[in-house]
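Archive entry. Fields below.
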Amino acid sequence: MTTSLRPEQPVSDDLTSPLEPGRALFTTSMTTLSVVFTFFAIIPLFSVLIYVLIQGFTSLSPDIFTKLPAPAGTPGGGFGNAIQGTLLMVGIAALISVPFGVLSGIFLSEYARDDRGIIEVIRFGVNVLAGVPSIVIGVFAYGVVVLSTKTFSAYAGGFALAILMLPIIVRTTEEALKLVPWELRLGSLGLGADRFNTTARVIVPAALPGIITGVMLAVSRAAGETAPLLFTALFSQYWIDKVGQPTASLAVLIFNYATTPYADLQRKAWGASLLLLILVLAISIISRYVFRRRF
Amino acid sequence: MQTQPSNQLEAPENLTAGGGSLQPDTIARGVFLVAALAVVGTLFWMAFVVARDAMPAISKFGLGFLVNSTWDPVVEEFGGLTFVFGTIASSAIAMLLAVPVGLGIAIFLTEDFLPEWILTPIAFMVELLAAIPSVVYGLWGIFVMIPIVRAVETFLNQTLGWIQIGGKSIFGVPYGPGLLTAGVLLAIMILPTIASISRDVLKAIPRSLRNGSLALGATRWETIFRVLLPAASSGVVGACILGLGRALGETMAVTMVIGNTPQIDTSIFAPAYTIAALLANEFAEANTAVHIGALFFAALLLFVITLLVNIVAELIVRRVSLERN
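PREDICTED_STRUCTURE:
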């Protein structure tokens, strides 16, 4: 088409002119500024990672998993009960939130075409729920569970974490289902399956890795959450012997120990942070590869 | 993502077998719908419970709660003014820092300053900032950030300490834990929200707009400021408001570095207190009905503020993404 253009011929000198100094300066300074800003944003990430790695690594030992916290000032001890408590409460939270979250995600993805209006309302509600501060969720769980059972418990903590996980699970499930090729649905329907059978036997199995990744992402976020546990699960120095009593967790342990003046407790806080960071970062990186977008 | 033909799922009526309305398919749809409605219903349940338990305090203190700056569990007098001040002031500092930096990052990551294989990992790293648990930020804040901030505060106090409001310095006595520390930490935490949503919005602007501007002789940055940013403005504003919502409700990191002192001081270095930090510190130990009621009132306040902020942000972001599709 453009045979008349001869790109090999340089533009003649009188057609180009250098920018006026003011504009040139503006361009250079803005470019520099945006590079500097980006650089500044990355510093905290590396600073947090490096400090947690160095400080946390020295306090890691097998004792951490098998022993109870030692009293302040006495060396040794671990926080096995906090690991146990975090696992228990995240487990309770998953039991509550996974069924509701996954079913909602299926509804949003697979039934979106005939229920436009209601889909919009639900998606809006899920996004707003995701924006509710985690401390308010804790207050809610206190009002619902702690006030009625009259005790701090792993149930209350698990309930709070479940609400926190819900929006993440709904969104990731919807996203995972949307990644399933459209032809699969057409093929299944073409073979005579109804929509429920198509969803349950073809689409959900195909999206299962994505759905599981989403649940893991929610679990990792819940494991790091502190605010909803402070006055629902409280904390405990002992192993769990029943679910209906105050329960320790890694996140609350970090908060409690970081604000004490004792160096050995502070080191345990770094150790617990390292465990949480490994969990959270590993799952974030995995989910990045599965979804190719963020949550 | 995929463009999907809208009506192909529905087979014509005369081709489908069976008749009754209670087919398994209908039941399944009902179950999915109920689950989804339950998720949304949680919001209303939450509003109801928090408001119900705040009732004793609402009827006792009324709107005077908002202008009273005394918080004294011993004599059972409760006012939320200092906490509202701390919440708004720390978030304002965070926004002042995070909006320009976040926008700068978003522009840097959408413009072709560097090849894509370098930009993608950088974008991912910025997003990873959002994955670090709040309490770990708090721990890092106490042991790493506060010493640095204290040094900066000492310097600012010596050089700019003469700037005053009503006879008191804005850059007063350096403390370490305080409004500025909390604001900076909050800025780091909301940066990924602002940067990555703004980046999405900027990326969605049609290429032709940029080309047109460049063809008219504008430089790269003239194009960014006069064409791209105006075109992306509502999405960027939405991203910033979402960031604000995060900052207002952020609890653990702020509680650990703000100093937890209920006061209103002119100095941005002074310790302060936020609503979220108040709840974190006092809820487990409150034992009188009035005290618990007052805490629920404070929680309701925070809930309503963040709810409004998030709804506005959601509406703006949604409108932008609808226009895009």
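CURATOR_NOTE: The CA atoms of residues 256 and 287 of chain B lie 23 Å apart.
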